[in-house]
Queue: 2 jobs
Job 1
Amino acid sequence: MISAMNAQRSAAISAEPARVLIVEDDPTVADVVGRYLEREGYAVETLADGAAAFERARAEPPDLILLDVMLPGMDGLELCRRLRTTSQVPIIMLTARGQEADRVIGLDLGADDYVTKPFSPRELTARVRAVLRRPPGMSEDGSPTPSDVLRAGDLEVDVAAREVRLAGETVALTVREFDLLAFLMAHSHRVFRREELLERVWGYTFGDTATVTVHVRRLREKVERDPASPSHIQTVWGVGYRFEP
């Protein structure tokens, strides 16, 4: 009886919709995006103020944040920076098409991805679904299984616990940083083009490969002894990246 009740409780928990916090001061954009996501089954909350969003995300962390760069008071870049000091919640930045510098800065600050305005709500919904999907480390396509512990020198990745340790010290990675590292380690010595990594790790068949480039740079800064001369995450010029144990 107890096991049956536990099973029912687990099923109820797993049936809970993912919570998406939209931080956007344009009510029209927020409303359209919110309705699309609700139609997909997500629980949506919308805020128009960066400071309020920071407090809300700290008090009740969502499963994902859609974050506009241009916000009154605390802008999206500053909000992203502050969130990354306490949380690894997935963040998708919303930026104007001409704000290339802001997009790169947002990725450097820890955003998982960005979408440029004007955007298709269907495309944005697909990006949200890709970020919230089952991590590639749990797939059956040759990626690491949940029981795997991947090792390379003093670098250790526990797939089930989603923890990374370097010389015994825990390394804080974002969702996409972890997924990218685990995927590359599971396919050591193999070279992947940026487009391949965007599809295999992010789940996109289209998108800006600068997202991959910035994530590789951030990973190197966190797990390489000398990021300027990496021993593990290596660049194959004119092709892409490979992991060497």
Note: The chain has nine helices and twelve strands.
Job 2
Amino acid sequence: MAATESGLTESSAMWFDYKLRQCSNLETEIQACIDHMLRQGFPFSKVIWEVDKNQVRFDACHPLHIIVPPWTQDLQDATRLVQLFP
């Protein structure tokens, strides 16, 4: 039974990898995130479910278009985060 579960786990991992790499825009958006990180220091990536296409979509957000409350010390502890659309 352990061999069957191992094969199922590996098959699921391969399917998930295929869906993210081939059926979404993850690779192109991760390049934009890396660029934002190298230029501004902290990247933001937004994950969206596209209902009409029935798939996940990733959006790299420019760090200068993100607003947090003034009392925020660490982004992980932010009570809210707002994205501006120029």
Note: The mean pLDDT is 87.
